[in-house]
Write a structure and sequence with these properties.
The protein has 634 residues and is mainly α. It has helices at residues 2-26, 102-108, 116-126, 163-171, 180-191, 202-215, 219-226, 236-248, 256-259, 269-282, 286-299, 304-315, 336-344, 351-357, 359-365, 373-386, 391-402, 411-423, 427-438, 444-453, 455-458, 468-480, 484-488, 499-507, 517-525, 533-545, 550-560, 569-579, 583-593, 604-616, 620-632, and strands at 67-71, 81-85, 142-143, 194-195.
Length: 634
């Protein structure tokens, strides 16, 4: 029995040995190719120098690879399984200390010994500078939002312009122009989609134009301009333009993408307050944002009124809805921050501050939908006179006032008059309503804005010689909206040499018949303007348009003591731009030459060169409107 069992054991061992050999030869790896290749043998390390006698270097513990045993499980008919059996590890010799592991301890916290300031710097440098994928980023080689196909200037007009020269030109523009049509022309040039001039960054090209538009009171155009550049490419100049643009449009939250990218580290109390506002609106941390603003109030990092406005605006994003009382006592002026935050919170600054700010506040208030219609109508008189508001926009505003359930006592009757001016069945009633809307001429700016308001109503009046006393105002009203062909209908009924005749002679789409010296002399004899400025403007405009004989022009110029041959640095620059037919540069130089608070600040020399340059550059329509406006407004 024992012998039989021994024979069975021997046969089992032989079978296991045979299967083990088959497993070694037939087993295939399940790993991808290359993973079971043996690693290259490491380079031999240099031998450590001999240690001093009396000590023995501790030897590292040897490790042995686990033994691999191939086992066939009982009752299994499948392939044998490979099992790794761990081998016992040798222990260190008694009395020899175990080696320390400083590297492993350091690896557990690799930032432990790094300066926290350096960590912050590394984190800041790792933040993305743009939030737009590379394939969707817009080029800075051409910037603007008013494309040539929509009426903008040709993009290549600025391609070869000198960057520093253009930058100096735009920087010196204060924003207020004597001419409404000059304002419209300059706005068109600044908003056009144009190539970046030589030697200028595209973001700075957008910033310069946005800042100029802001000074002109064109808040919406300035905002559209800064938004033409991707956030990650903003320069400090464009960041400042963005701050002004979003405040002017009463939308501080629009700055939040910028404060998270290039402007994240901008200094200044306005940027600090803006970041707190953005924390409340975009981060959902209203309480935290209000805490930052409270801390700013305690430290006095900004004027009290500015922090209060920020608290009131940020509080709208807080669930607590903290009530903030705005105290205007002690505030002596309106800044862009105060105006923008006040409008954003639906507040109207005190009347004294509004009057002190004048046009700077009015051009922003007229477009603010959160203000009452009556407040916007009051501001419309200034905005329309400047060119910010069109005739159609004014009519829309008055129509909204008339549709109110309880129209204002002042503006409601004016809205009714405007309806009569357009829709009264009898022409006499329409003309009477137009006269009432014009009012007296005690306020020249308001008087001209009312001409803008009635432009299309005036065009519906049938020309009549019996209305010659109203002809000049009716024609001037039509020309504020560019209705030159409607004005030309009056050419046969107005007396030659009258003011109405002078306006038609300048604004007619085609060159009229020869203008005689007698007609100009008649106009001069009826001129009541100071220093015969109206006659001088008429002659300068006609000469610039090429509508008067040179000999006749010289005789009249001698009578008026007018020297249009004098040259200045500016006249040479605009004449050179006109010779190259560069419309953008001509428009910029024309706007530069029309800066001022009134037409009495304009000279006939400047008017002549502006009109002549615009005509040579292919902008005759604008040249005619500017020349006629000069005569109408003196």
């Amino acid at each position: 029995m024992i012998a039989a069992r021994a024979r069975v054991a021997l046969l089992a061992c032989a079978a296991i040995a045979t299967l083990s050999a088959m497993a070694v030869t037939a087993q295939e790896s399940l790993l991808p190719p290359g993973f079971d290749d043996k690693p290259a043998a490491p380079a031999r390390k240099p031998q450590a120098p001999p240690r001093p006698s009396g000590t023995s270097a501790p030897q590292p513990a040897r490790t042995s690879a686990p033994a691999v045993v191939t086992v066939q499980r009982p009752g299994s008919s499948g392939a044998p399984q490979v099992v790794a059996v761990p081998q016992p590890q040798p222990q260190a010799a008694p009395g020899v200390p175990a080696p320390a592991a400083p590297v492993a301890a350091a690896a557990a916290n690799p930032l432990a010994n790094i300066d926290p300031a350096l960590i912050d710097q590394l984190v800041a440098s790792a933040k993305p500078k743009a939030d737009i994928p590379p394939q969707a980023q817009r080029s800075l080689a051409r910037v603007g939002f008013f494309d040539e196909a929509d009426g903008g200037f040709p993009a290549v007009s600025s391609h070869y312009l000198n960057g520093p020269y253009v930058a100096g030109l735009l920087t010196k523009m204060r924003g207020e122009l004597v001419s409404r049509w000059g304002h419209i022309l300059l706005r068109r040039a600044l908003a056009s989609r144009l190539d970046t001039p030589v030697g200028m960054n595209g973001a700075d090209w957008a910033a310069l134009r946005a800042q100029a538009l802001l000074r002109m009171g064109e808040a919406d155009a300035a905002r559209a301009m800064v938004q033409e550049v991707d956030n990650g490419f903003y320069t400090p100049g464009l960041e400042e333009a963005a701050m002004g643009s979003f405040l002017a449009t009463a939308d501080p939250v629009g700055l939040c993408p910028l404060t998270a990218l290039t402007a994240a580290g901008r200094q200044g109390w306005d940027w600090a307050l803006t970041r707190a506002i953005c924390t409340a609106f975009t981060g959902g941390e209203g309480a935290s944002a209000l805490g930052v603003l409270d801390n700013a109030m305690r430290k006095g990092t900004a004027p009290k009124i500015d922090i209060l406005l920020a608290q009131k605006f940020a509080g709208a994003a807080s669930q607590g809805r903290r009530a903030v009382k705005i105290e205007w006592a002690g505030v002596d002026n309106l800044t862009p921050w105060r105006t923008g935050l006040a409008l954003a919170t639906g507040l109207e600054p005190p009347e004294a501050l509004r009057k002190q700010a004048g046009a700077a506040y009015a051009v922003l208030a007229v477009r603010a939908p959160m203000l009452p219609l009556t407040a916007r109508a009051e501001a419309a008189d200034i905005a329309a006179e400047r060119g910010v508001l069109s005739s159609a926009a004014m009519v829309d505003l008055y129509s909204e006032i008339r549709a109110m359930e309880e129209p204002d006592r002042t503006w409601g009757p004016l809205a009714d008059m405007l309806r009569s001016a357009y829709l009264a069945a009898d022409a006499a009633d329409r003309l009477s309503a137009i006269r009432k809307l014009w009012g007296d001429a005690s306020d020249p700016d308001r008087a001209y804005s009312r001409l803008v308001l009635t432009a299309y109503a005036a065009a519906r009046i049938t020309p009549d010689a019996d209305l010659s006393s109203d002809a000049k105002a009716l024609i001037a009203s039509m020309l504020t909206a560019g209705l030159d062909r409607n004005a030309l209908r009056w050419a046969g009924v107005v007396p030659v040499g009258s003011e109405a005749w002078g306006l038609i002679a300048l604004s007619a789409p085609a060159k009229p018949s020869a203008i005689s010296a007698d007609a100009l002399g008649t106009f001069q004899s009826g001129d009541t303007s100071s220093g015969s400025l109206r006659s001088r403007f008429l002659l300068a405009g006609l000469m610039g348009l090429g509508r008067v004989d040179p000999g006749t022009a010289r005789r009249i110029a001698d009578d008026l003591k007018l020297d249009l041959a004098r040259e200045t640095r500016w006249t040479r620059a605009i004449d050179s731009a006109a010779a190259s037919e560069n419309q953008v540069l001509v428009a910029l130089l024309a706007g530069f030459g029309m800066q001022g608070s009134g037409w009495d600040k304009m000279t006939p020399l400047h008017l002549y060169h502006i009109v002549a340059a615009l005509r040579r550059a292919g902008l005759e329509g604008e040249a005619r409107m500017i020349a006629a406006e000069a005569v109408a407004r003196v």
